[in-house]
Design a protein that fits this description.
This protein is α+β, with helices and mostly antiparallel strands. It has 2 domains: about 190 residues, no CATH class; about 130 residues, no CATH class. It has 11 helices and 13 strands.
Amino acid sequence: MTKLLFLAALNLAKSPGRALALILCIGGPVFLFISAAAISAGISGEAAASIESGADIYVTRDQGGLDANIEVKYVDEFRQSMSVVEVRPRIVARIAPAPEIWAVLLGIDPLTTEDERGLQSGRFFRAHSSSEVVMGSTLANRLGLKVGSSFILSTRTMDRTLKVVGTSSKSGTLWESSVIWTSFSLAQELLGMTGLATDILIQTRDEVMANRLADHLARSDAHLRVQTKDLVRRYVSRGYAYTGGIFSAVYAVALALAIPAVLVISGFGTRERRREIALLKVTGWSTTHVLVLVTLEAWLCSLVACGLSFLTAFVWVRWLNAPLLANLFIAELEWFPVVEIPARFEISTLGLSLLVCLIVSWTGTLFSSWRTASIPAAEALQ
């Protein structure tokens, strides 16, 4: 077996063009698989962390089965429940602080227990401030702003001069990188939502009490749309399953094209490869020995292709922010993202990638080699 392995490596070294073409055909789909798996794991991990650290219940107005703005007067009503720990109104909106630059306007007052460890620099805005904001670090860099800078934010109702008093940490979540965080009252003014909120966040003592309270609120007022943390978790999971299905279809096409490409490059219809196998048969090699040799060649190509694909995917996603790929998983993201794309590379992905490489290489090489080895050597030499 050692001699066969050495001979397989020697055959690949003698035909570097064919070996390189095999590695590229095998590694292309695997690169897509590793990149997609890393991005999907990173985004779903951030989403799960955000959900778990969020509120237990989200309450909005029900408008034909869709979320609608809710009156702030409900805050005092919700606080009367014994199972409630905290109730906070929130405003979330999509705005453009500059042409072709979109951001999330988050209007919510920070908890008194929150400190400034989550900030890269600066501090939180003061309660009920009419001009101070905390900005995502990536958004601040795109706008050329820093702590202490002022800028004019234009909305449908007014133009307001705001001051950046802090920037979020670069190690924060993806959505934090493009957020403009203001006090709730300032967000109301900017968007003309006096007396209204996008939703109301309720924190309860435990999940059991959250489910009971959610059922009670839904029964007590038919105009309210009540969503628990578990329901939001299922929404997110369903959304990622849909996105993953779209990419799986694209990947399946790439994989289907890779196998016939490997089949052609590895020797099907290639006179040089047919002559090599025929000469081995003339020198006494059996069909089994030829297939073992071809299997080892494919195994070596798979190892190289898997390693190069993993390294390329790591550089493409971690260092270059996954250009041309990230927008398949994150809606409305540019082709060449400037934000840091969350990614998580796992050992299990590397093992599965090697398995995919072996399947593609063996499927594409064994059939053509077996067909050539099964015919008489004189016919193969013609």
